[in-house]
Write a structure and sequence with these properties.
By secondary structure, the protein is mainly α. The protein is about 50% helix and about 0% strand. The chain folds into 2 domains: about 80 residues, no CATH class; about 50 residues, no CATH class. The radius of gyration is 24 Å and the shape is elongated.
Length: about 140
C-alpha cells in the first residue's frame, strides 16, 4: 500500500476546493468532466489513482477516474492480488463434475434431462430451505 503521501503537494488539485471532485445534483456529469480535465494535467495522476484504489476510496474523482472506473479497477486489482497469492495462473484447476447428493448434481440432472435421484432432490430441497432462512444456498461452515 502507498504509505508516502508526499506526492499530494505536487497534485494539480492542491489548493482547489475539494467539492469540485465530488459530484452531486443536476450538474454531476459536468462536475466529473471538469474534475477529470484538472486530473489530465496532473503530474501525479498515477499515484493518486493507485492511492484511491488501494485505500478503497468510494467517492469522487481520483487520478482522473470516476467512481465507476475506480470500482472496476479495484475489482481487477483485488482479484489479481488474490490469484497471485493463491496459485500460479498457469496451472488452472480442472473443474470437477457435479456429484450426486448435491444441489449442483440436481441441476446437472435437469440440464441433462435425466431422472433426478433422491439424494439430489433432498440436497436441492435443503438448499432452497437454507436460501429462505439465511439468504444463501451455501451451507454454514
Amino acid at each position: 500500500m502507498i504509505r508516502n503521501l508526499a506526492w499530494l503537494q505536487h497534485a494539480a488539485c492542491a489548493g482547489m476546493d475539494v467539492r469540485a471532485f465530488f459530484s452531486s445534483g443536476h450538474h454531476a456529469r459536468a462536475q466529473v468532466n471538469e474534475a477529470r480535465r484538472v486530473c489530465a494535467t496532473c503530474p501525479v495522476q498515477t499515484q493518486c489513482a493507485a492511492w484511491a484504489i488501494e485505500t478503497g476510496e468510494r467517492w469522487g474523482v481520483w487520478g482522473g477516474m470516476s467512481q465507476k472506473q475506480l470500482r472496476e479497477k479495484r475489482r481487477r486489482f483485488t482479484s489479481r492480488a488474490k490469484t497471485s497469492t493463491t496459485a500460479p495462473s498457469s496451472r488452472k484447476r480442472k473443474r470437477q463434475p457435479a456429484k450426486c447428493g448435491t444441489r449442483s448434481g440436481y441441476q446437472k440432472h435437469l440440464r441433462e434431462k435425466t431422472e433426478i435421484c433422491g439424494p439430489c432432490r433432498q440436497a436441492n430441497t435443503d438448499a432452497d430451505n437454507r436460501l429462505r432462512r439465511t439468504g444463501t444456498t451455501k451451507a454454514s461452515v
